[in-house]
Write a structure and sequence with these properties.
By secondary structure, this protein is of the alpha+beta class. Helix content is 16%, strand content 14%. The chain is globular.
């Protein structure tokens, strides 16, 4: 896959040791299995961990919440391994089943349009439907006082929508930046990225289903108005022509990793955000970084984008949205790539 990762550009311009080398130097196989995989299993199962003993046995695992039994890894239901196959379906071990909770194009609200199946929906329709390319997600219990305790049969499923794949996302013949490409296709792409909030409930058949008339359902996407708070708010580096005070940002996209806080808020991480910024309809060999960028901006820009001045061929938002043309809005790029 690394052969296709064209944006994997080394960006450490200092002489300091890269973080991954520090991790590799400090990490042993035994330590990884005990602290990495062990903690991952505990977190996945939703059990608290008060202490982890130095022994390689499971005696050191202790639940930290009153009323919860001690965790015994051997009690996890065993399953038979699966043989390799070429079936065009999801295959699960005997005794298990799978089901889809929400898909790209599924309804967010009762009034949302049905998915057509030919990718011909416009931006307005996509705004009312589930976004594209699901990534990080978290289930917030509907009655929970924090982000992990409470109902296990009803809650809010928050899902990242990282990017779009043009070949499937647009109708046949529509290519970003090509013939037939217009502002509405850009808006549709923006509305399909970000995160969706969907109220879900476990039904009598043991399957999850969306509560379409819920007041909680919403799309947080590439055009959602957000307020900047904290030290960055109002900083000169986040001021733009349309937001001269540097207080508001439209949208979130490239949402990959995720997390949550114990006061019921969701964390979403924007990655590969520079792929969306380019030079509009200008030709790369006709555009120099100056006079559009200062020396400091050029240094930072190259650190993120390497030598690429153009946007990724998968997006081309800069052709119809001036926010993403860095020759017009050089500071807009600073307003993304955040958690």
């Amino acid at each position: 896959m690394s052969d296709f990762d064209w944006d994997n550009i080394p960006a450490n311009r200092t002489k300091t040791t890269p973080f991954h080398e520090l991790v590799e130097a400090a990490q042993s196989r035994r330590g990884f299995l005990k602290t990495g995989l062990g903690l991952g299993a505990i977190g996945f199962l939703g059990l608290g961990l008060a202490a982890c003993g130095g022994s390689s046995s499971s005696d050191g695992w202790v639940a930290d919440q009153a009323g919860l039994p001690e965790f015994n890894p051997e009690e996890i239901k065993a399953f038979a391994g699966l043989e390799a196959n070429t079936l065009d379906t999801v295959t699960v071990p005997e005794g298990y089943r799978h089901a889809v909770i929400n898909r790209w194009g599924d309804k967010l609200h009762v009034s949302s349009p049905e998915f057509r199946g030919d990718a011909s929906e416009d931006a307005r329709a996509q705004l009312q439907q589930i976004g594209y390319n699901h990534d990080g997600l978290h289930f917030f219990p509907i009655d929970g006082k924090d982000s992990i305790s409470g109902s296990s049969t009803e809650g809010l499923l928050v899902t990242n929508h990282e990017y779009i794949t043009p070949h499937f996302f647009f109708p046949q013949g529509i290519v970003p930046g090509g013939e037939g490409w217009n502002a509405d296709w850009v808006r549709k792409s923006q509305h399909a990225q970000g995160a969706s909030v969907v109220h879900v409930r476990l039904n009598d058949q043991g399957l999850w289903e969306p509560v379409l008339d819920s007041k909680y359902n919403r799309s947080v996407n590439g055009n959602t108005l957000m307020e900047l708070v904290g030290p960055a708010a109002g900083n000169a580096s986040v001021r733009t022509n349309k937001d001269p005070e540097g207080r508001y940002v439209y949208g979130t996209f490239g949402n990959c990793g995720n997390g949550y806080t114990y006061w019921n808020t969701y964390l979403t991480c924007e990655e590969n955000f520079t792929d969306y910024f380019g030079i509009g309809t200008k030709k790369s060999d006709e555009v120099d970084y100056k006079p559009y960028l200062t020396d400091k901006q050029i240094e930072a820009f190259k650190r993120y984008k390497g030598s690429s001045k153009t946007s990724s061929g998968s997006y081309r938002w800069d052709t119809h949205d001036e926010r993403f043309d860095w020759t017009i809005e050089p500071n807009e790029v600073n307003r993304f790539g955040w958690v």
